[in-house]
Design goal:
- The protein is mostly beta strands.
- It has one domain.
- It contains no helices and 6 strands.
- The strands form 3 sheets. Strands 1-6 form a two-stranded antiparallel ribbon. A two-stranded antiparallel sheet has the order 2-5. A two-stranded antiparallel ribbon has the order 3-4.
- The radius of gyration is 12 Å and the shape is elongated.
Length: about 60
């Protein structure tokens, strides 16, 4: 299930990237938002910090 959220400028979001079929975490996924690029950990986790906004993610 995807949920879209909108964040104001300056907020941070902690995310987990999972496979659509089995919901297993995806390690090493590249996430781009504005001028920031982060990569997920072995548990599929990443933090998007100091978002230049407003931003939305789904």
């Amino acid at each position: 299930m995807l949920e879209e959220i909108e964040l104001e400028t300056g907020y941070a979001a902690e995310v987990v990237v999972r496979a659509a079929g089995d919901l297993e975490p995806i390690a090493g996924a590249r996430i781009e938002t504005g001028d920031a690029i982060v990569q997920t950990s072995s548990a599929g986790e990443a933090t998007l910090a100091r978002l230049l906004g407003p931003s939305s993610c789904a």
